[in-house]
Structures are given as C-alpha cells and as structure tokens.
Amino acid sequence: MKTHTVRAHRSAEALPKQEQLAWRIAQVAADPVPVTDDVADMVINRVIDNAAVAAASYSRGAPSSARAQALSHPPSQHGAGATVFGELLTTRVSAEWAAWANGVAVRELDYHDTFLAAEYSHPGDNIPPIVAVAQHAAERGLTGADLLRGIVAGYEIQIDLVKAISLHEHKIDHVAHLGPSAAAGIGALLSLDTDTIYQAVGQALHTTTATRQSRKGEISSWKAHAPALAGKLAVEAVDRAMRGQTSPTPIYEGEDGVIAWLLGGFDARYEVPLPEPGEAKRAILDSYTKEHSAEYQSQAWIDLARRLHREHPEIADPSKVERIVLATSHHTHFVIGSGSADPEKYDPAASRETLDHSLPYIFTVALQDGGFDHERSYLPERAARPDTVALWQRITTTEDPEWTRRYHSTDPAEKAFGGSIEVTFRDGSVHREQIAVADAHPLGARPFARADYVVKFRRLAHGVVPDGEIERFLDVAQRLPELAPHELAELSFIVDPAIRSAAPAPAGLL
C-alpha cells in the first residue's frame, strides 16, 4: 500500500490531475490485478449476506416503496436492465433504479457488513449498484469474473477512504465515501479507462455529499435510502462520464472543494492508503458482518448480554439493579450511547431506526431475552414492556480512553468495538465484565465462515423465498467467479407469490 497525503489547495496552486485523490482512486480501479482466492470467497459470502437481509426486509415499508418506484422505470435502450430482489427474474428495470431498490432492501434492517475506522461504513452497499450494472450490461460480454473484480474494487476504495477520512466529525453522512467507491467499482467492472473513472468518481462524490442528520435524533426511513441513493447516483455518474461529461475538479482538494469547506479545511491533512500498481485489492478482508440486526458497535454488547443472561440472570431484573454503566469508545458513546444526548434513544415509542441506534435499548433487550431478533426485538410492545423500560433507563454509557484507543488501533489483534460493564446492585454489590469484539468477528469466539452466511440466508429467507428458490440462489451465488454473461441475472431471488401479492405497493407521483 502507498499512503497519499491529501489536502486542500488554492486555485493558484494548479494541482495536476495525476496528483488528485480522485485520479489515484481511478488508477486503482482501472488496475486489472487478479483477485485472490480468499478475497473471491469473501465476496461470495457478502453477496449471500446482502440477499439474506433483502429477503427479510422484502415486505417492509421502505423497500416496498423503493421497489414500487423501480418497477415504474423499465430498462433503457442500451442494455437488458437489471433484476429487483423478490421479483421474477424476467422482470427488469433500469440499472440505476435496480441499484436504488436493491440498495434500500439491503440496508433496511442494518444487518449486513461493516467497516469502522476514522469513519463508519457498510461496504456491502457497493454490491447492489455494481451487480445492477453487470446485469444490465451483460450483453457486452461481462462475466462473473468481471463482476468479482468490480465488487473488489468498490470495497477497496470505500474501506481505504474510511481508514483515512472522517466525515462524521464534520457532520457529513458516511455515504459520501460510497458514491466514489461504487463509481470506481462500476468502472472496474466495465474495464473503463482511468480518465473516465476519474470523472465518474468526481461526479459521484459531488452529488452524494449530505449531512448526517439522517442518523441523529428521531431516525427516519431515509436511513435505508441514503446509501441506495449514493449507488443510484454512482450509476448515473458513470453513464455521464462514459458519454464524455466531466466533473468538478479537483473535487477533494479544490479551493471550493470537499476538504476545504465540508471537511477539515485548509489546515487538514489526510493520509489515504491505496494499493500500488499490481498490488492485490484485499480490503474486503478487513470488514466484518453482523450476527445481529443492530448497529455494528452494539454487536459485541449483544453477545455480552447473551452471556450475562445465562450466567447472571439477576442483572436483567430492574428491582435488583441500581445502575449499569457501559464504558466504551468515543464513537460508540456518542453515536449510539447516552453521549449522543438524544432523548429518543430512551423513548419506548421511538422508531425502529432509532432503537437500532440505541445501545441502552439493545443491551437491555438482549440481556432480558438472551438474544436479539431482527423483528421481535423491535416490536412496539417489546420496547414498551415495563421491566424493560425500567432497566433501560438505568443504563448509561461513558467514554473510556483505552477503548477509544483500541477502536482506532491499526493492529487487527488489538482493534476492538466493545467495552466493559459495571453493574451496581441495590444491595451495594458490583459486577464487572468486558468484551472486545463480537462473537462473529474474525477474532471473536465464533468467527463467521461460509456456512454461517448460508445459515443466515436460509433463516432470513425462510417463509419468504420458496425452498427450491433458496437453493437455486445459493448455487448461483457460490459460482459467482465462473458465471457466464447470461447467468448474471440469476444473482437475485424470487419471493413466494403470496408474499409478493401481499406486500405494500404504495402509489406516488411517478
């Protein structure tokens, strides 16, 4: 890897194109380096993971709305169109709208992969737009190997940006890293030249930068739409760039660019690591998926709560507990903990989107139930249960500098997303424990492997996708690197006809 120093430049400095971050991103995407076997295996895992969450979310409001919008936009004249999760494989829509609908379905339950460093991210959000373009453009001779290369590039760029550039510090939503990465991934898929990808990356960044109010206070259904919009706009940016249209430059470093006015300003320096020419793209191996449907920084806490449920059930009884303090990292405390100062995080009537960003709520439910379910744990009656509310209100978080240091460590062996718990009982006794990483993390008690991804898909698709269709999809997904052009459209699943007919299909303007 080579580290590139990136900063804002005055217009008089005339930063050459070849020294701009967008160009260097494009160079990485355009480099046709072979994909290693372990990386290919992980891509397959994440394709299965995305589909699992999309199946479970099929009938929910946000995916149903996005799907209804997509189905109103047939394929454009220059390709076969792309499939939409749940619909017949012969049903095709325009690629950018497939990216939109499938992106919302994948993101709805906050249940797919994650990478946390200077910024937050869900790099699996790259997959829907890249797959949509692959399906649409399959007639160009694209294969599973091309799709694999595109997904690997998308993961690489997003994770490298997340390692170096904090967006939330400046109240910018994390999808500002997704637009450029998805555009780069699509460029790699299509084997576009460096200059075309460079223009697409610039346009994608310019059009996908927004504030992070979507993840603050009363969190709305837009949270699922935000990454889907970034994927949709990335598809459109590539389309424009392929037609010869250019982007604002330098998009990151310009005097009125992203760094100067939206990030750290002219005094900021960002050290961005990117693969050198000929170096394999392996960033996907740094990411990790979720065993539980909740914000990633709560995953280890859920596992600790499950253990406490078995070993110390008295902690779940509010009549015995005076207070519980969860000492954790700065990010966890201020984003999903009491450090956010969001009263909604303690509100039994809060939205599901808000509750899955409330560590006190998540920990309480997992502690009392001995597990955490993507549906049952968020039901209004579950959130309002009196003993849950009583215990929930006694849980606070605090930042511990050591957990913050470990959160930001570049040493995989010490990087951690958990913390320590101190339970003070009403009789004055105290119980203390800690957990560093989730059980499913690569360094956890039960690291996720292929079999776990398959089990997750079967479990979440059960009752939604017919058994034979589950098996067909798993077969296609696990052959991804060898897929022929006509098989790319099979990287989707069909839900049971009764499920499809009963799902919401809200009407709008278009």
UniProtKB/TrEMBL annotation:
Against InterPro entries, the record matches this protein to: MmgE/PrpD_sf, MmgE/PrpD_sf_1, MmgE/PrpD_sf_2, MmgE_PrpD, MmgE_PrpD_C, MmgE_PrpD_N
What protein name applies here?
Answer: MmgE/PrpD family protein
Query: So what family is this one in?
Result: Belongs to the PrpD family.
Ranges where the MmgE/PrpD C-terminal domain occurs: 292-479
TM regions (residue ranges): none
Location of the MmgE/PrpD N-terminal domain: 19-270
Q: Say which domain of life the source belongs to.
A: Bacteria
